[in-house]
Specification:
Layout lengths: L5 H13 L5 E4 L2 E6 L4 E6 L2 E5 L3 H11 L1 H7 L7 E5 L2 E4 L5 H8 L19 H14 L3 E3 L3 H9 L58 E7 L22 E4 L15 E4 L8 E2 L3 E3 L21
Parallel strand pairs: 8-11
Antiparallel strand pairs: 1-2, 2-3, 3-6, 4-5, 6-12, 7-12, 8-9, 9-10
Length: about 300
Protein backbone atom coordinates (compact mmCIF):
# COMPACT_ATOMS: atom_id res chain seq x y z
CA UNK A 1 0.00 0.00 0.00
CA UNK A 2 1.37 3.41 -0.98
CA UNK A 3 0.51 6.56 0.97
CA UNK A 4 1.25 10.06 -0.19
CA UNK A 5 3.45 12.09 2.11
CA UNK A 6 2.41 15.54 3.31
CA UNK A 7 5.15 16.94 1.10
CA UNK A 8 3.69 15.17 -1.94
CA UNK A 9 0.21 16.41 -1.11
CA UNK A 10 1.48 19.97 -0.83
CA UNK A 11 3.28 19.63 -4.17
CA UNK A 12 0.08 18.35 -5.80
CA UNK A 13 -1.83 21.35 -4.50
CA UNK A 14 0.87 23.77 -5.68
CA UNK A 15 0.97 22.15 -9.12
CA UNK A 16 -2.77 22.63 -9.52
CA UNK A 17 -2.43 26.29 -8.58
CA UNK A 18 0.45 26.84 -10.99
CA UNK A 19 -1.57 25.33 -13.85
CA UNK A 20 -4.20 27.93 -13.14
CA UNK A 21 -6.91 25.33 -12.62
CA UNK A 22 -10.22 26.76 -11.47
CA UNK A 23 -11.74 24.07 -9.26
CA UNK A 24 -15.18 25.77 -9.23
CA UNK A 25 -17.64 24.55 -11.84
CA UNK A 26 -21.32 23.90 -12.59
CA UNK A 27 -22.88 20.50 -13.25
CA UNK A 28 -26.53 19.48 -13.54
CA UNK A 29 -27.64 22.76 -11.99
CA UNK A 30 -25.25 22.43 -9.02
CA UNK A 31 -22.43 24.76 -8.00
CA UNK A 32 -19.44 22.54 -7.25
CA UNK A 33 -15.88 22.96 -6.01
CA UNK A 34 -13.16 20.30 -5.87
CA UNK A 35 -10.49 20.25 -3.19
CA UNK A 36 -7.31 19.25 -5.10
CA UNK A 37 -5.30 17.79 -2.21
CA UNK A 38 -7.48 14.75 -1.51
CA UNK A 39 -9.79 15.12 -4.53
CA UNK A 40 -12.96 15.86 -2.56
CA UNK A 41 -15.98 17.46 -4.20
CA UNK A 42 -18.17 20.04 -2.42
CA UNK A 43 -21.57 21.44 -3.38
CA UNK A 44 -22.82 24.94 -2.56
CA UNK A 45 -26.06 25.00 -0.56
CA UNK A 46 -27.92 28.29 -0.58
CA UNK A 47 -28.92 29.45 2.89
CA UNK A 48 -32.55 29.22 3.95
CA UNK A 49 -35.00 28.31 6.68
CA UNK A 50 -36.69 25.02 7.47
CA UNK A 51 -38.51 23.13 10.20
CA UNK A 52 -35.88 21.21 12.14
CA UNK A 53 -36.82 18.16 14.16
CA UNK A 54 -39.52 15.52 14.33
CA UNK A 55 -43.05 16.07 13.06
CA UNK A 56 -46.16 15.03 14.97
CA UNK A 57 -46.82 12.31 12.38
CA UNK A 58 -43.32 10.93 12.93
CA UNK A 59 -43.90 10.91 16.68
CA UNK A 60 -47.03 8.83 16.20
CA UNK A 61 -45.29 6.36 13.88
CA UNK A 62 -42.22 6.06 16.11
CA UNK A 63 -44.31 5.53 19.24
CA UNK A 64 -46.31 2.80 17.52
CA UNK A 65 -43.19 1.05 16.21
CA UNK A 66 -40.78 1.47 19.12
CA UNK A 67 -43.15 1.76 22.09
CA UNK A 68 -43.37 4.57 24.63
CA UNK A 69 -40.25 3.65 26.64
CA UNK A 70 -37.93 3.28 23.66
CA UNK A 71 -39.42 6.38 22.03
CA UNK A 72 -38.58 8.56 25.03
CA UNK A 73 -35.11 7.03 25.33
CA UNK A 74 -34.05 7.35 21.69
CA UNK A 75 -36.33 9.74 19.77
CA UNK A 76 -37.86 12.34 22.10
CA UNK A 77 -34.72 14.49 21.72
CA UNK A 78 -35.93 15.38 18.21
CA UNK A 79 -38.67 17.57 19.70
CA UNK A 80 -39.91 20.21 19.56
CA UNK A 81 -39.88 20.81 15.84
CA UNK A 82 -38.72 24.40 15.39
CA UNK A 83 -37.75 26.96 12.77
CA UNK A 84 -34.05 27.18 11.92
CA UNK A 85 -32.26 29.35 9.35
CA UNK A 86 -28.74 28.67 8.09
CA UNK A 87 -26.38 30.72 5.94
CA UNK A 88 -25.15 29.30 2.66
CA UNK A 89 -22.26 26.82 2.92
CA UNK A 90 -20.14 24.32 0.97
CA UNK A 91 -20.77 20.71 2.04
CA UNK A 92 -18.83 17.65 0.88
CA UNK A 93 -20.90 15.50 -1.46
CA UNK A 94 -19.92 12.31 0.36
CA UNK A 95 -18.12 11.02 3.44
CA UNK A 96 -14.34 11.01 3.75
CA UNK A 97 -13.20 7.77 2.16
CA UNK A 98 -10.59 5.31 3.39
CA UNK A 99 -8.25 6.39 0.60
CA UNK A 100 -8.60 10.07 1.53
CA UNK A 101 -7.94 9.26 5.18
CA UNK A 102 -4.87 7.18 4.30
CA UNK A 103 -3.51 9.83 1.96
CA UNK A 104 -3.57 12.46 4.65
CA UNK A 105 -3.07 10.55 7.91
CA UNK A 106 -1.00 7.54 6.76
CA UNK A 107 -2.95 5.29 9.16
CA UNK A 108 -5.66 2.65 8.81
CA UNK A 109 -7.96 2.60 11.85
CA UNK A 110 -10.44 0.60 9.74
CA UNK A 111 -10.16 -2.95 8.31
CA UNK A 112 -7.60 -2.95 5.49
CA UNK A 113 -9.49 -5.51 3.37
CA UNK A 114 -12.33 -3.08 2.61
CA UNK A 115 -12.12 -1.13 -0.69
CA UNK A 116 -10.62 2.35 -0.52
CA UNK A 117 -13.70 4.02 -1.95
CA UNK A 118 -15.78 3.07 1.10
CA UNK A 119 -16.19 5.57 3.95
CA UNK A 120 -13.44 5.80 6.54
CA UNK A 121 -14.83 4.12 9.67
CA UNK A 122 -13.73 3.51 13.24
CA UNK A 123 -13.34 7.29 13.44
CA UNK A 124 -13.94 9.14 16.70
CA UNK A 125 -14.87 12.82 16.83
CA UNK A 126 -11.36 13.58 18.11
CA UNK A 127 -9.84 11.68 15.18
CA UNK A 128 -11.95 13.69 12.74
CA UNK A 129 -10.55 16.82 14.38
CA UNK A 130 -7.01 15.52 13.85
CA UNK A 131 -7.77 15.03 10.17
CA UNK A 132 -9.11 18.57 9.86
CA UNK A 133 -6.09 20.06 11.64
CA UNK A 134 -3.71 18.29 9.23
CA UNK A 135 -5.75 19.27 6.17
CA UNK A 136 -6.03 22.90 7.27
CA UNK A 137 -2.29 22.96 7.85
CA UNK A 138 -1.61 22.10 4.20
CA UNK A 139 -4.53 23.50 2.24
CA UNK A 140 -5.31 27.17 1.81
CA UNK A 141 -8.95 26.62 2.72
CA UNK A 142 -10.56 26.31 6.16
CA UNK A 143 -12.31 22.97 6.74
CA UNK A 144 -14.59 21.93 9.60
CA UNK A 145 -17.40 19.55 10.50
CA UNK A 146 -20.96 20.58 9.67
CA UNK A 147 -23.17 21.83 12.46
CA UNK A 148 -26.14 19.69 13.33
CA UNK A 149 -28.45 22.27 11.74
CA UNK A 150 -26.38 22.29 8.54
CA UNK A 151 -26.49 18.51 8.38
CA UNK A 152 -30.27 18.40 8.72
CA UNK A 153 -30.61 21.17 6.15
CA UNK A 154 -28.54 19.08 3.75
CA UNK A 155 -30.21 15.75 4.43
CA UNK A 156 -33.70 17.22 4.07
CA UNK A 157 -32.83 18.89 0.77
CA UNK A 158 -35.93 21.05 0.91
CA UNK A 159 -38.30 18.30 2.09
CA UNK A 160 -40.44 18.10 5.24
CA UNK A 161 -41.03 14.33 5.13
CA UNK A 162 -39.22 11.80 7.37
CA UNK A 163 -36.73 11.11 4.57
CA UNK A 164 -35.61 13.17 1.61
CA UNK A 165 -37.10 10.31 -0.43
CA UNK A 166 -40.56 10.90 1.06
CA UNK A 167 -42.59 9.22 3.79
CA UNK A 168 -40.53 6.02 3.49
CA UNK A 169 -37.17 4.86 2.23
CA UNK A 170 -35.90 1.64 0.62
CA UNK A 171 -32.58 -0.17 0.47
CA UNK A 172 -32.40 0.82 -3.19
CA UNK A 173 -32.05 4.40 -1.95
CA UNK A 174 -29.71 4.04 1.06
CA UNK A 175 -27.56 1.56 2.95
CA UNK A 176 -29.30 0.62 6.22
CA UNK A 177 -30.61 -2.52 7.93
CA UNK A 178 -33.36 -3.55 5.54
CA UNK A 179 -34.62 -6.30 7.86
CA UNK A 180 -36.61 -3.54 9.56
CA UNK A 181 -39.27 -1.23 8.11
CA UNK A 182 -40.58 2.27 8.79
CA UNK A 183 -44.23 3.11 8.18
CA UNK A 184 -45.47 1.44 5.00
CA UNK A 185 -42.03 0.57 3.65
CA UNK A 186 -41.01 -2.97 2.74
CA UNK A 187 -38.16 -5.10 4.00
CA UNK A 188 -35.06 -5.01 1.83
CA UNK A 189 -31.37 -5.84 1.73
CA UNK A 190 -29.05 -5.85 4.73
CA UNK A 191 -25.44 -5.59 3.54
CA UNK A 192 -24.02 -5.77 7.10
CA UNK A 193 -21.20 -3.46 5.99
CA UNK A 194 -20.48 -0.11 4.35
CA UNK A 195 -21.07 0.51 0.68
CA UNK A 196 -18.91 2.42 -1.78
CA UNK A 197 -19.58 6.15 -1.49
CA UNK A 198 -22.02 7.47 -4.11
CA UNK A 199 -23.50 3.98 -4.61
CA UNK A 200 -27.01 5.32 -4.04
CA UNK A 201 -28.82 8.20 -5.75
CA UNK A 202 -27.97 11.73 -4.63
CA UNK A 203 -30.69 13.88 -3.09
CA UNK A 204 -31.95 17.00 -4.86
CA UNK A 205 -29.08 19.04 -3.38
CA UNK A 206 -26.53 16.71 -5.00
CA UNK A 207 -25.51 15.02 -1.72
CA UNK A 208 -24.80 11.30 -1.39
CA UNK A 209 -25.18 8.97 1.61
CA UNK A 210 -26.83 11.49 3.91
CA UNK A 211 -29.20 8.66 4.90
CA UNK A 212 -27.30 5.61 6.16
CA UNK A 213 -23.93 4.06 5.28
CA UNK A 214 -22.12 5.56 8.32
CA UNK A 215 -23.05 7.75 11.26
CA UNK A 216 -21.51 11.18 10.67
CA UNK A 217 -20.02 13.46 13.31
CA UNK A 218 -21.20 17.04 13.67
CA UNK A 219 -19.41 19.90 15.42
CA UNK A 220 -22.11 20.41 18.11
CA UNK A 221 -22.11 19.21 21.66
CA UNK A 222 -25.14 17.00 22.26
CA UNK A 223 -27.94 18.06 24.60
CA UNK A 224 -31.16 16.05 24.72
CA UNK A 225 -33.21 19.19 25.44
CA UNK A 226 -31.34 21.66 23.22
CA UNK A 227 -34.24 22.16 20.82
CA UNK A 228 -36.37 23.75 23.55
CA UNK A 229 -34.22 26.90 23.54
CA UNK A 230 -32.34 26.58 20.25
CA UNK A 231 -31.69 29.90 18.48
CA UNK A 232 -33.28 30.37 15.07
CA UNK A 233 -30.25 31.60 13.16
CA UNK A 234 -27.26 29.29 12.61
CA UNK A 235 -27.53 27.25 15.84
CA UNK A 236 -24.21 25.73 16.82
CA UNK A 237 -25.23 23.60 19.79
CA UNK A 238 -24.51 24.01 23.51
CA UNK A 239 -21.26 25.64 24.60
CA UNK A 240 -20.16 22.55 26.54
CA UNK A 241 -21.14 18.92 26.96
CA UNK A 242 -19.96 15.35 27.35
CA UNK A 243 -21.08 13.96 23.99
CA UNK A 244 -20.94 15.09 20.37
CA UNK A 245 -23.81 14.90 17.88
CA UNK A 246 -23.95 12.14 15.27
CA UNK A 247 -26.36 12.17 12.34
CA UNK A 248 -27.63 10.13 9.41
CA UNK A 249 -27.70 6.57 10.76
CA UNK A 250 -25.67 3.75 9.24
CA UNK A 251 -25.64 0.38 7.50
CA UNK A 252 -26.31 -1.20 10.91
CA UNK A 253 -29.36 0.82 11.95
CA UNK A 254 -33.08 0.43 11.28
CA UNK A 255 -34.72 2.92 8.89
CA UNK A 256 -36.17 5.00 11.73
CA UNK A 257 -32.60 5.90 12.67
CA UNK A 258 -31.72 7.14 9.18
CA UNK A 259 -34.57 9.68 9.18
CA UNK A 260 -33.68 13.32 8.51
CA UNK A 261 -34.54 14.36 12.08
CA UNK A 262 -32.78 11.53 13.93
CA UNK A 263 -29.93 12.47 16.26
CA UNK A 264 -27.73 10.79 18.82
CA UNK A 265 -24.89 11.71 21.13
CA UNK A 266 -21.61 9.87 21.64
CA UNK A 267 -18.47 10.60 23.63
CA UNK A 268 -15.90 12.30 21.37
CA UNK A 269 -13.18 9.76 22.10
CA UNK A 270 -15.26 6.73 21.03
CA UNK A 271 -14.87 5.26 17.54
CA UNK A 272 -17.45 2.87 16.14
CA UNK A 273 -17.23 0.50 13.19
CA UNK A 274 -20.05 2.49 11.59
CA UNK A 275 -18.86 6.03 12.42
CA UNK A 276 -17.36 8.44 9.89
CA UNK A 277 -17.61 12.08 8.84
CA UNK A 278 -17.83 14.60 6.00
CA UNK A 279 -16.54 18.15 5.77
CA UNK A 280 -17.68 21.72 5.29
CA UNK A 281 -15.26 24.18 3.69
CA UNK A 282 -15.36 27.88 4.43
CA UNK A 283 -14.97 29.72 1.15
CA UNK A 284 -16.91 32.45 -0.71
CA UNK A 285 -20.17 31.62 -2.49
CA UNK A 286 -19.84 30.66 -6.15
CA UNK A 287 -18.89 33.54 -8.42
CA UNK A 288 -21.92 32.70 -10.56
CA UNK A 289 -25.10 30.90 -9.70
CA UNK A 290 -26.30 28.09 -11.99
CA UNK A 291 -29.36 28.98 -14.01
CA UNK A 292 -31.22 25.86 -12.85
CA UNK A 293 -33.52 26.11 -9.84
CA UNK A 294 -32.82 22.48 -8.99
CA UNK A 295 -31.15 22.82 -5.63
CA UNK A 296 -33.86 25.05 -4.23
CA UNK A 297 -36.85 23.40 -5.92
CA UNK A 298 -39.95 23.86 -3.78
CA UNK A 299 -37.99 25.60 -1.03
CA UNK A 300 -38.67 29.05 0.36
CA UNK A 301 -35.58 30.69 1.91
CA UNK A 302 -37.87 33.17 3.65
CA UNK A 303 -39.87 30.43 5.37
Amino acid sequence: MVWLTLSTLSQNCLAAEQKGDNPEYFENGLSLWREPLIDLEFVWLEGGCFQMGQSLQEKQTLTEEAGELKYHEFYADELPQHKVCVDGFWLARHEITRLQWQQLMATSPFPVDVPKDHPATNISWLMSMDFIVVLNGIAKENFRLPTEAEFEYGIRAGTSTPFSTGKTISTDQANYNGLYVYGNSRKGAYLEKTAQVKSYPANSYGLFDMHGNVWEWCSDWYDKGYYINSPVNNPGGPETGKKKVMRGGSWFTAPRSVRSANRRGLEPNIALEDSGFRLVVKRPPPAQQPSSEKINDGFDPNF
